[in-house]
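Bench log. Compound arrived from synthesis this morning; before running ITC I wanted a structural hypothesis for how uridine-diphosphate-N-acetylglucosamine sits in the protein. Inputs:
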Amino acid sequence: MDKFVIHGGKRLCGEVNISGAKNAVVAIIPATLLAEDVCRIENIPNISDVSMMIKILHEMGAKIKMINENTLEIDTRTVNSYSVSYDLTKHLRASYYLIGALLGRCNFANVAMPGGCNFGGVRPMDQHLRGFEMLGANVSIDKGVVNASAEKLTGSSIYMDVVSVGATINIMLAAVKARGLTVIENAAKEPHIVDLANFLNSMGADVRGAGTDVIKIRGVPYLHGCDYSIIPDQIEAGTYMVAAAATGGDVVVKNVIPKHLESITAKLVECGVDVIEGDDSVRVVASCRPNRCNLKTMPHPGFPTDMQPQMAVLLAIAKGTSIISESVWENRFKYVDQLTRMGASIQVDGKVAVLEGVEELKGAPIKADDLRAGAAMIIAGLAATGMSEIENVIYIDRGYENIVEKLSAMGADIKRVKIDDEPTRIQTAG
Ligand code: UD1
């Protein structure tokens, strides 16, 4: 168990390179199950969600070779198991993509319901399972395990009752080798959905319309291997943009697709922060206390719910009162208790938070409640005066590659400390 120790109050200045997108790679690695040859994937972030997904595929029989720190070769021709136990799926929400990928590969899947970040409410899978059924699969849940099987999957017209990233991806995976045409209406439009479609098409699939709310998939009988590079991570980039803004910094966020960041850029600009777009970078310059603004999370291209906790930190120290409405998840304000410990003034009523900006946050012992809440705690610690200690960094490691190194290179005073070392430290202090 590790924790982060931050001495806050230092402006972030310099450059940061953004890694490959977590939410794309956790869909693309399972998608290699559909290929009948080797896939070589570049720009893979070194994060624990990826390690876990690789471990699962390895246990299923895949051969995985690390070519260099961020490139993998995956050969799934040797996969000989179609069951995945809860011991493996409990660590990773995206393990549910194995259901769609296995169904697409061999019309059969036996996968335990996933674990992963719990934002404080239920994370249903009804749209995933209904999609599989509409493609002709029989689906049942027995003792927490999803059993799905079909003689042959057949394309279908599927209207999604809610815009769901996970269900859109899972249906794409199952439909890509199904007989005939599948049309997903009211599909999610996130950048990682487009990335998955591009990956599948690189393997010979026929997927059109990804990035719009109608995706058309004409099933093909065979998918070959391919070389592919994962897109940059929109949320990692947004996290560093907000960290720069919250510390009054001047940071060039490199290796990004500025279009993917537009909703975040727009809110920072509303807060009085300068954002200068380059071809594949954005420079964030903040010279004074941010202005207030209101924001509402929405599916893409709206403001991403996965940036909501980080933006809340900026608004907690803004001039005036801001309102955040969370429209994607039932309960995503658990982290507010931690910010309150640092002196923030935030009232939460259901899916709405009212933030009275305070002049400064004060360092405190805090914890990460989930991945993005953890990122928010880091930003809070960097912006605060004094020392903060963040526990549960295991959540942060799920989605941020080398976060301590990247922040330190921009002037942050942040260290990873083993909690096992604690007794010595406390003794010394005591
Ligand atoms: C993905 C992201 C997560 C992000 C979320 C929304 C990954 C690995 N995770 O999660 O970080 O916060 O998108 O951008 O990519 N819903 C249903 N029924 C379903 C599925 C979802 O009602 O079958 C609801 C959910 O309760 C939620 C909304 O749809 O209110 C959006 O969920 P969804 O887009 O599916 O999120 P995930 O794919 O789990």
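What the model suggests: The chain has two domains: 2-19+232-418, 22-219. The pocket of uridine-diphosphate-N-acetylglucosamine is lined by residues 23, 26, 93-94, 123-128, 162, 164-167, 188, 305-306, 328-329 (CB under 6 Å).
ITC booked for Thursday regardless.
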